[in-house]
Amino acid sequence: MNAATVGLLTGMALGFAAFFGGFWAFLLVAFLGLVGLIVGRMVQGDFELSDFTRTRDRQ
Fold it and tell me: What is the pTM of this model?
């Protein structure tokens, strides 16, 4: 899938969540979508867990 298709599907999912579930459902769907994106990128090899954590020694 290209980026436009993914963006369209994401917008539609968030729109349905907001319309049928209200504001909190919208936030939940957006948060879970972000978590899914991060996990998918980690499985794909684009991110590593060390990209999100920073040690105090390294600046």
Answer: 0.68
